[in-house]
Amino acid sequence: MSKNVFRFAPSPNGHLHLGHALSALLNARAAVALNGRLLVRVEDIDRTRCTPELERDMFEDLAWLGLQWERPVVRQSDCFAFYRAALERLQDTGLVYPAYLTRAEIKGFVSEQEAAGEAWPRDPDGAPLYPGDAAVLCDAELRQRAVSDAPFALRLDMKGALERIGARPSWQEAGAEGGGLFEPPVSVEADPAAWGDVVLARKDTPTSYHLSVVVDDARQGVTDVLRGQDLYHATSVHRVLQDLLGLPQPVYRHHRLVLDTDGRKLSKSNGDTSLKALRAAGMTHAMLRRRIGL
Ligand code: GLU
Predict the structure, then answer these.
(1) Residue 186, Cβ neighbours under 10 Å: how many?
(2) What pTM does this model have?
(3) Best of 46, 231, 242 for a ligand 1 pocket test (most atoms within 8 Å of beta carbon)
């Protein structure tokens, strides 16, 4: 029987924090409990925020945690050719379009709508759905941007994508820890429309988080995506891309988040909860496990 393949896929765009420790350790435990394999994938497509120093610190943290993973490690910055090929396949379907609105233009448009009493829909992360270039730019400006060197994002026509797929996608969700690991998955109905026309790539980056994650999970034969609850809704987008690209669907296992003392989600910008800082301050493995509820 083929083995379960788990992956821990951090981005070295900041220091790992307690939430990453939970995710890494849950992946390691699940791989052992299910007699599977554990991969680490470096998600470093953001070439400005990810640095070699942060990646080095990340591996130091993982070694300190006692994590054992397979080598060689896949680094997404080495895989742009795979993402480009997948993007081209999506472009061949006619469902990808260049979108020229800047963040500031989207924000300005949405503020105007809301000032006029029109609530503008937001995606599950709280960002406004893309209004479409034509809602904001006149024809002449649109033509000008298309022929000039203006920056653009390549977006997926989500409505068209769902029509092409036919049935509404769903995913298999299973437990992330303890006895939940052994329970059969339940089917969850995806809601990709809640994200609107997601970004698949940008003028200077031939991929996005959503595209590279589904390409790599398939390329690496990942069978179990065990990650934080904060990415639960992103699974809807991942399922659409898998269906459009004909990729297999892993089982998803979203785990609880580690919250700060005010009950907020931890973030990489909050330096004092970084593993590096906590280790330097004398945190032991036992203290860590207590803090993250393991
Ligand atoms: N690289 C993502 C992060 O650090 C995780 C991606 C995933 O697990 O799907 O948040």
Answers:
(1) 11
(2) 0.95
(3) 231
